[in-house]
């Protein structure tokens, strides 16, 4: 297990990027539910954000890649618009512990 942050560190309706043992990842909190994905656009394999912690479009309803504008559903990472339409962001499994810490499911040596 790797403790990434606490649930409260990610604001409702917003996104945040992290370095992790699994590489760069990002989190989006929507309707009090947390979604974690690898920060890796399926189009060209590069990071998505246009500025630190900015992974969403202007309406904050979709994840957006800054490079060519691909847009992804927050809930499942599916690309619904752009050059990688039909592909998906890679979800990152996690658990919340009793203290609302967001814990990645990686072993200690990962
Ligand atoms: S690298 Fe993300 S849309 Fe092209």
From TrEMBL:
<dbReference type="GO" id="GO:0046872">
    <property type="term" value="F:metal ion binding"/>
</dbReference>
<keyword id="KW-0001">2Fe-2S</keyword>
<feature type="domain" description="Rieske">
    <location>
        <begin position="2"/>
        <end position="103"/>
    </location>
</feature>
<dbReference type="Pfam" id="PF00355">
    <property type="entry name" value="Rieske"/>
</dbReference>
<dbReference type="GO" id="GO:0051537">
    <property type="term" value="F:2 iron, 2 sulfur cluster binding"/>
</dbReference>
<keyword id="KW-0408">Iron</keyword>
<keyword id="KW-0411">Iron-sulfur</keyword>
<dbReference type="InterPro" id="IPR017941">
    <property type="entry name" value="Rieske_2Fe-2S"/>
</dbReference>
<protein>
    <recommendedName>
        <fullName>Rieske domain-containing protein</fullName>
    </recommendedName>
</protein>
<keyword id="KW-0479">Metal-binding</keyword>
<dbReference type="InterPro" id="IPR036922">
    <property type="entry name" value="Rieske_2Fe-2S_sf"/>
</dbReference>
